[in-house]
Request: fold
Amino acid sequence: MRQTAARPQLLTVAQAASKAGLAWEAVPSGATHDAAHIGRRCPMGMIFVPSRAGRSHCPEEWTDIADIATGVRILGDTLRILDRRPELVAG
Reply:
């Protein structure tokens, strides 16, 4: 599967994280998330939350509820930013 890049306009996720006082970094994902398919049709970005011991996509994966809540809050903040700036997602 070819790599699908998040669109630069969706750095609004980073903007939302920064406003919340959270550190962030752009992280390429080798996983074939639904985003690999969605990104061909519309703007796409992903929010990653930390998993205990960095374990992901395995039976030992665990994410604390506080980290999940933070990810949900950043998603909501991102959607509010995009709602106020429709030009970022047009076309």
